[in-house]
Amino acid sequence: MGFIKKFISQTRKPEGFLGKLMVNSMNSGHAKMADWGLSHIESIVPDEIVELGCGGGRNAGELLKRYPCAKVTAIDYSEVSASMAADYNRAMIDAGRCKVQQGDVSALNLPEGKYDLATAFETIYFWPGLEKCFAQVAKVLKSGGCFLVVCELDGADGFGRKYEKLIDGMKCYTTAEIEAAMKAAGFSAAKADHHRDKPWIAVIARK
Ligand SMILES: C[S@@+](CC[C@H](N)C(=O)[O-])C[C@H]1O[C@@H](n2cnc3c(N)ncnc32)[C@H](O)[C@@H]1O
Q1: How far is the CA of 113 from the centre of ligand 1 (A)?
Q2: Which secondary-structure segment (H or E) carries 142?
Q3: Which CATH architecture has domain 3-206?
Q4: Which ligand 1 atom sits closest to the C-alpha of 27?
Q5: pLDDT tens for each residue of 111-125
Q6: DSSP string of 37-105?
């Protein structure tokens, strides 16, 4: 495997030294897109948040800042991501407002009906079956809870195809595919937005 493919593939499940480098770069590289995504849910006031596929934990930290009364549980199946997310949010963990758990979104080991908000930034490309994983998200949300999915590839642009070729198992979805999977997983309503001039998408659903 060439170095570029090896490095880019670390986005799927960061491991070892290259994984640490990738997680660091994702924390800064995804911040603008994540903040654009969060601008869609400014009217929500969640108490309990679950941040799925949390990577290096920057977005969990941002949620803790934006919602100063909320608690955030951050989940990632990569040991490297979970450990770096815990380091990033150490002060909030010590304050009792943040937990980081290693876990897979396809089999969430979390209390049912607990969360007001679930977020997923730049991660659903790698989830093993959208509908099955979205059903896991629905299970842990409260009735009326909100699910925000944000991606920087909209499933229609050339970049997405390029990355799909480089990263085994990656799939970029259109907003229509994400909305359909949300509805099939039991969400009652879904709404999508596309960035004005970038292939960024945000899809918001209610349980
Ligand atoms: C491209 S990174 C994005 C990280 C972070 N959300 C961000 O925006 O910077 C994708 C992350 O999703 C995690 N991930 C992928 N599939 C997962 C799954 N099935 N369960 C939990 N985490 C998963 C990966 O380990 C990785 O840390």
Answers
A1: 23
A2: strand 141-151
A3: 3-Layer(aba) Sandwich (3.40)
A4: 9
A5: 999 999 999 999 999
A6: HHGGGTT---SEEEEES-TTSHHHHHHHHH-TT-EEEEEES-HHHHHHHHHHTHHHHHTTSEEEEE--G
Q: Kindly report the protein residue whose alpha carbon is nearest to atom 2 of ligand 1.
A: 11
| Res 190: pLDDT | 87
Query: For the chain, what is the mean pLDDT?
Result: 95
Tell how far the Cα of 68 is from the centroid of ligand 1, in angstroms. Answer: 24
| The predicted structure's pLDDT at residue 1 | 62
Q: Give the pocket of ligand 1 (CB within 6 Å).
A: 11, 13-14, 26, 30, 34, 53-55, 59, 75-78, 81, 104-106, 121-123, 126-127
- Distance from Cα 184 to the centre of ligand 1, integer Å: 22
Burial 118-143 (b: 16+ CB within 10 A, else e): bbbbbbbbbbeebeebbbbbbbbbbe
- Can you list the residues of the chain whose pLDDT is less than 70? 1
